Amino acid sequence: MPDKKIVYIVSQNPFTCVQVQQQLTQYLAGYIEVRTWCLKDTEEVPAEKDCDLFIAANKPVYREIRKKLPADQRVLMANRTLEVDSLEEIMALPKDSEVLVAGSWKETAQEKIDLLRGFGLDKIRFYPYWDGCEDYPRHVDIAVITSDQAIPPEIKRVIDIGVRTLDLSTFVEIIVKLDLPREIIDDISKHYIATIFHSAERRSKIAEQSARLKQRLQVVLNTVDQAIIAIDETNELVVFNPAAEKQLSIAADAVLGRNVGEVLPEVDFRTVFQTGESLINSIRCIRSNYFVVNISPILDEENKVLGAVSTLKPIHEVQEMDTKVRRELKRKGNIAKYSFEDIIGEAPALKSTIEMAKTFAGTDLTILLEGASGTGKELLAQAIHLASPRKNAPFVAINFAALPDNLVESELFGYEEGSFTGAKKGGKSGLFEEAHTGTIFLDEIGDASLEVQKKLLRVLEEREVRRIGSSTVTPINVRVIAATNQSLKQLVKQGKYREDLYYRLCTIQVMVPTLRQRKEDIPLLFRYFARKLYQRELGFTPDVLRLLMDYHWPGNIRELQNITNYLCGIIKPEDSVTTQYLTTYLTQDVPTWGAPAPVETGTDDLMKNVIQEFDKLGGQDYLKEIIKKFHEEATFNRGVGRQMLVSSLAQKGMPCPEHKVRLFLKKLERAGCITVGTTRQGSRLTHLGEALHRLFTQRM
């Protein structure tokens, strides 16, 4: 074999030198020895005098080395192209995307742009960028590179399409200039054709898959009964399915490609585009009809918003579905709705009850809840169920006081068809069967008759039920929670309750406190019910609040809720509750109603001691303002915290550090002028504190 020809690859970029060297070696290694000359490293001409051919990577390089080499030295400028497969990321860019194309020189950058447009990428706005370029659009944040070209600092996304490869025409020129065997051209041509064929075949398969996916997506869009619309990054409508056409009375052909703001100005996509976050369950009036609207952004891998998709559902359908769900739940039986988080109150008596209930919620032990009517026993039972391992199973309740004896048995145990007059065809399952794997709540268990008690005891002992009129038994797995507003122990002594059933039920006894036992929760409960039922505040004058705290509340929380309904119904939101709005029965237990609340003998001395104590601290003015603030907040049934006092004093030109406010509050608490609540409740004036306020008012 003759000696190999010496060929130099010349480029500004060392990476380009190496890549082109590898490509030439791949096809011509048996005929040529390929060396590299990187102008970035040295502009000195290589020492070899017998170099057969210099190949310039681009026009600027060609001009540069042509000046340095002898006139008779053979120099070839390479024609280079791009790999089709490397362009997929650019092809995926949205229409009218703006992109910088980087090169070592302006001319090479423009050559790359021409190549990209030659591949049909004419819907992308390309701008050339080169080393030292100053005049370029600085808002563009995407750049295309073919190696390690420099890019401006504004660029957030870089698309590397790899070094441009030599095209077939360059190989032909090299073979001709070096007088190499012509059959080499055939081998290289076959390889290029095979590469192009495989690439085209792969892209064809991707296109087929994309077409099939698009077809399936279209079937889905045409089938669903929910209106779906989508827009691209330019706010143009790109999806408008048949359900949207029907519900909005708009033809898709008339709106696709139009700006969504022109077609549906009521659907605000701007917020989703600005925040990149979904808009959920927004109610909008569109073309005189109300819809529940959901909008979600379409994001790329870098969380850039490329568009948005929205679903619209007529509000009457939502209401119908809600009714259907409620009806189905009622048909299937009760479910627990309240957890421990739904129990409102901070009183120690209530907290103790909740902690005990939480402790035993995780067991299967039978629990007996004892407490007066209206204290929230069923709410507590539901919370126990939802905190138990059975939380995903049924919660079934029966109130013994609400059903006559002849119905209790059939409700509890069920019956077979024809077992009695009026029995349903096919029979009926009992509540114990419906509660299988879950919890059964036996409310007002003290009202069960002795006959029902006997059968109930058997069920609790055997864990199986027999329907009325049936000879077979059905095993059950239920957790039992019972409740009563009577003393079962006393009923046992009176012979009205089975002792064996009593001990079966009271494995764990939990006492539910009355409202009288948790009076500190009264303001909190009024606030809760006013906000929940009427979305408003309910303010009380100090005298009214004191009366409500002193009232004996025989109906407990149920009574308090009813009073809240009454007060919210007759009092304007901007007014406070005064004595004239209260019903007579609320005042019957308060003999001094309408007059300042009495305080113990020696009040004057106590107030004098408080004032003297603050005088020693140089804080009598602070004392007056603090007591005044307490009184003002009490009018709106609100407590006072340290931060509130610090802010209030500062506004009045009496700045006071928080540690000093804490000291003042401690003094007032020890003197009996305030009660200190939790952080959320704040502190409040006592009767002595109110008396102190009246004293300061009289002196003014």
TrEMBL record:
Residues of the Sigma-54 factor interaction domain: 343-569
Record has Transmembrane as a keyword: no
Residue ranges occupied by any PAS domain in the UniProt entry: 213-283
GO aspect biological process, one term: regulation of DNA-templated transcription
Any GO molecular function: DNA binding
The UniProt record lists the keyword Transmembrane helix: no
Signal sequence interval, chain numbering: none
Keywords for the protein's UniProt record, in alphabetical order: ATP-binding, DNA-binding, Nucleotide-binding, Transcription, Transcription regulation
A Pfam match: PAS
Gene3D superfamilies (UniProt xref): 1.10.8.60, P-loop containing nucleotide triphosphate hydrolases, PAS domain
UniProt-recorded name of the protein: PAS domain-containing protein
Organism: Formimonas warabiya
